[in-house]
Amino acid sequence: MTGWIAAEGTTFGAGGSRRAGEIRRTGGTPSTPGNPGRGSRDGGPAAGRRRGRIGIGGLLATLLLFGAGGCASSGTGGSGNEEDARSLPSQQRMVVRVGGYRAVDIYNEPGVGVRTIDVAAATVWRVVGGVYAQLDIPVEHTNPPVMEIGNRGYRARRVNGDRMNTFVDCGSDLSGPLANRYDITLSVVTRVTAKGEENSEILTTVDAYGRPTAVSGNPIHCQSRGILEQRVAQAIATALGREP
Known about the structure:
Layout: E1 4-7, H1 44-51, H2 56-65, H3 79-86, E2 94-96, E3 104-107, E4 111-117, H4 121-134, E5 141-143, E6 148-156, E7 158-159, E8 162-163, E9 168-169, E10 172-173, E11 176-177, E12 183-194, E13 200-211, E14 220-224, H5 227-239
Antiparallel strand pairs: 1-3, 2-3, 4-13, 5-6, 6-12, 7-8, 9-14, 10-11, 12-13, 13-14
Helix pairs in contact: 4-5
């Protein structure tokens, strides 16, 4: 199972910020110092009935069940792309509370790669579409006013000639990496932001989900290895005559 697990009282930095003592949940009433909400240790009789006690085996099963999050789908691509994008599960935030232990917040985040380059944003934007074509990533989403381009959900077997395990980690079994054998739904989106007249920030997010091909099963979240984000930025730099 991939994803972050944040214990109550933990503080994270960028990409997964949590204030000390803050717990987020999906649905219901959030727990705050003045409002314990559902599932809180001091939430009253109703919370007590919902909380219960489960063993460690139950916790592991719950973690496996809720270890997958998702990314939203949008864009104006063909029906095939839209169908693939809709197969992504909606993003989940799940609080797991076991009697005698602190609550934990389980969530998944996409990989994020950021690079600054000494080229005006408008110039960078003009080459990004060609870079996606070079990497064999079909473009179905463009937003010129904010200089954003990409694909928020398509079936990928290879990218730039490399198998999926190069870019994402879906776990492995005795037969090897699952990313090379699962049906992978991949999301890749790049945004260019001006950082002055002659400087730009290139931000690329990568997210993926894998589904077994031989048997029926739910999609699992696959963690980005950071390779594809870097490759996009390097290809853009090369197209602009800068060091990759």
